[in-house]
Structures are given as structure tokens and as C-alpha cells.
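pls design
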């Protein structure tokens, strides 16, 4: 796959992530009427639970006014734009996938905040009363997995030789071994 093909696939993944997030949130607000029901137990350790998140990650920076809400939209949209630019410059498919998940998730949450004033969260993983995570949504999960992919690739990938001569010397050394 060419570099431009990888980038195009990345933007398609971001769009798919956004669409799946929108679709699931539409299900929560529509057919399931989760806001009215409050909670729907699915498994002993997982419920659908309506939550309106007025902040960002971990409920930080809660928007208590319209100005703060628009500020959060502006900040998160700027970050999303930065991720899109990074994706346009990236060549490695693994990094493009991670960035695409972050971008798609960010767009899903930005859409909520712009249209509703809050982000819809509904996925409640719990073990009894203990919750290892706050209640989240698909967009949050996509952002988390995207960041984990980027961190893993950053920590586990080796730097390539700086110039062709070093690469040729490494190849010759391997060949002679």
C-alpha cells in the first residue's frame, strides 16, 4: 500500500470510528431511551448507564458555562486538527491507525459537546461497586486504544540508521556473520 493509500485508509478509519460512535449514541438516545431508563444491566460486570460528561478526560475541566463549553470545543477541535495534520505527515501504517482512532473518537465527542453541551457516556464496567474506569463511550475507547498504539509503537520500535551508509554497513555485517 502506498503512503497516500495508508493515509486515506487512516481517514476512512477515523470516519468509521466517528460513524460507529454516532450510531451507538443514537441507539442510546433513541430506541433504548437510556436517559429515561437510567441503567440497563447487561452482564454481572457491565451495564449501560446514562451519564452526561460536561468535562474532558476523567471529568476534568468541567464546563460550567457556555463560554467554558465553547472553550473546550475550541481546544479539543484544535487538538483534533493537530492529529489530522500529524496523520497527513505520517508514513507508518501502525501510527496512522493509532492517530485515526484518536481523531475519530475526538470528532465523536466534539460533536456531542457542540450539539448537546455534554458528551454522552454509557459503558459502565464494574466489579461489584468497584469501577476500574469511569463510565465511557466508544469515542473514549477509540482515543484510549489509539494512544496506546502510539505509545507502544514509540516504545517498541527501533530507530532506523540515519543514512544509507550505515544501513549498508549493517547489512554487510549481518551478511558476513
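designed seq:
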Amino acid at each position: 500500500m502506498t503512503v497516500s493509500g495508508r493515509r486515506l485508509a487512516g481517514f476512512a478509519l477515523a470516519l468509521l470510528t466517528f460513524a460507529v460512535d454516532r450510531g451507538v449514541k443514537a441507539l442510546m438516545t433513541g430506541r433504548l431511551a437510556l436517559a429515561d431508563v437510567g441503567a440497563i444491566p447487561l452482564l454481572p460486570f457491565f451495564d449501560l448507564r446514562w451519564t452526561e460528561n460536561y468535562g474532558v478526560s476523567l471529568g476534568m475541566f468541567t464546563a460550567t458555562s457556555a463560554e467554558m463549553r465553547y472553550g473546550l470545543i475550541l481546544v479539543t477541535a484544535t487538538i483534533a486538527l493537530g492529529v489530522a495534520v500529524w496523520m497527513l505527515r505520517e508514513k507508518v501504517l501502525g501510527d496512522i491507525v493509532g492517530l485515526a482512532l484518536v481523531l475519530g473518537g475526538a470528532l465523536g465527542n466534539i460533536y456531542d459537546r457542540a450539539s448537546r453541551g455534554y458528551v454522552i457516556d454509557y459503558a459502565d464496567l464494574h466489579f461489584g461497586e468497584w469501577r476500574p474506569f469511569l463510565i465511557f463511550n466508544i469515542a473514549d475507547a477509540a482515543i484510549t486504544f489509539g494512544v496506546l498504539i502510539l505509545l507502544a509503537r514509540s516504545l517498541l520500535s527501533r530507530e532506523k540508521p540515519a543514512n544509507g551508509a550505515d544501513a549498508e554497513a549493517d547489512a554487510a555485517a549481518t551478511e558476513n556473520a
